Amino acid sequence: MNGAGDGKPQEGAGTPVLALERVTGGYSGAEIIHEVSISVGLGEIVVLVGPNGAGKSTVMNAVLGRLTLAGGRVSLQGRDITGTAPERVVRQGVCYVPQTANVFPNLTVSENLEMGAYIRRDDFRPRIQEMYELFPPLAERRRTPAGYLSGGQRQMVAIAKALMVEPVILLLDEPTAGLSPRFRGDIFRVVREINARGVAILMVEQNARQALGIADRGYVLVDGRNRLDGSGAALLADPAVGTMFLGGRGNDTAGDDGDRAGGADAP
Ligand SMILES: Nc1ncnc2c1ncn2[C@@H]1O[C@H](COP(=O)(O)OP(=O)(O)OP(=O)(O)O)[C@@H](O)[C@H]1O
Ligand SMILES: [Mg+2]
User: Fold this and answer.
1) pLDDT of residue 250 exceeding 50
2) Does ligand 1 have an atom closer than 6 angstroms to the CB of 43?
3) Domain with 212 in it
């Protein structure tokens, strides 16, 4: 029940697109996440917030089969994918945009999109056209190496590249990190647009206020454990969330989190 209530399927109805049930695991012995449970329903935008080092990216890795699991279950559309290798997870329709190094800087925009289609055997050119319609600035810069683009446009390339596989769910790890408020807004609008086209979204975000503002539901992760969850609106209104995340950093006007791409983003 929030700003995203635009005729979507009932939240929580039916089998979740993605579900983690009491997942415990980590890297080479060190357990990082403990009994974490998260679900993303059909048509939902779900946001995962938490302090640095809370294990948010590790949750993404658990979905992608990149974690040593000590317990729990990951399922995609009701099918068990616990421990399935990353490439097979992607083939099953999980698109993933990592937190860093998410484009090939020396390749042009169009080459990046072609790389995103590497597992497709069919004609993906119509999909590339769709991506240029979704991200008009990229259409104009299709022959430009991605490394020359502004931070915001590079994130668009990263998202479009991931979407070259027809997704059932899109995982985004801090897609607005380092962007100025204006370009953050562009990314959040694009996320809503992708979602409106029927793709469920699980997004890790530091800019908690804006992210929860577009979320159907959210989860707060602290020290590798579930701390709070609820609708985006309920979490925004929760004083505990306010203390943790909304005290200036991450709000629309603060712009204090490293506007690294600000200058380059100017048209
Ligand atoms: N590949 C890895 N090998 C070993 N430990 C790791 C690895 N990646 C992350 N960690 C550790 O796991 C913990 C959680 O890291 P993670 O990256 O999941 O946190 P996060 O919530 O995404 O943080 P941030 O907000 O900084 O991105 C940290 O203590 C980190 O040092
Ligand atoms: Mg992270």
Assistant:
1) no
2) no
3) 1-93+167-249
